[in-house]
Amino acid sequence: MSSTEKEREAHVYMAKLSEQAERYEVVIGEIVEMVDCMKKVAKLDCELTVEERNLLSVGYKNVIGARRASWRIMSSIEQKEESKGNEQNVKLIKSYRQKVEDELAQICQDILNIIDKHLIPSSASGEATVFYYKMKGDYFRYLAEFKTESEKKEAADQSLKGYEAASATASTELPSTHPIRLGLALNFSVFYYEIMNSPERACHLAKQAFDEAIAELDTLSEESYKDSTLIMQLLRDNLTLWTSDLPEDGGEDGFKGDESGTKPTEPGTAGK
PROSITE patterns, alphabetically (predicted)? Predict the structure, then answer.
């Protein structure tokens, strides 16, 4: 076994231990434990295995997820305090929100650099290519969630490019029932709904992915059945929610929207 292989094996083992211990946190500006281990593997410029890919994805998803949740809570509280005229509280909240935004920006830029410099250049399969371009779309979308004005537009443009590149490869390399292709459609539709404020485009994309998968459902392998059908249900849930935002004559045929306060759903990991 070469020194590179030994190093890779050690990093992956430590990442697994960190995952079990739920050690994803960002400490003193550095992403440590599980994420740090998988960063080292990615920088070896070898194509990652499915397991390695998922470890990297899950680690970053957990690190970013906690901060996205914090940002949403802070933004909601800030709006309430502003409506009450509590200027001192608003000032404190803005300061805290800025800290969370700085952390979000750092995490997103970190994984985006790894994707561009190491993961995409090392990917040899269509599945891996879709996975990484989808991640690129996801993390630019996370930036677009809190950036403003020109920075928001730039992040949204880059997110769109990532999703479009992933979709182009997925349409020729992956079956319509593949969990990664379905997860891409789910997150891409969330992008149109939340970032581009286009419920019609979001519904069209989600419905198309759902219908294409339904048509090929009998070809699903037992291995991916659970993941694929779960994402299909998430697509359907979002369609139910989103169609309530469509004008009566502008909706997709066959949909009955209803009022719901549920947040549009996306998968828990970048590969689902």
Answer: 1433_1, 1433_2
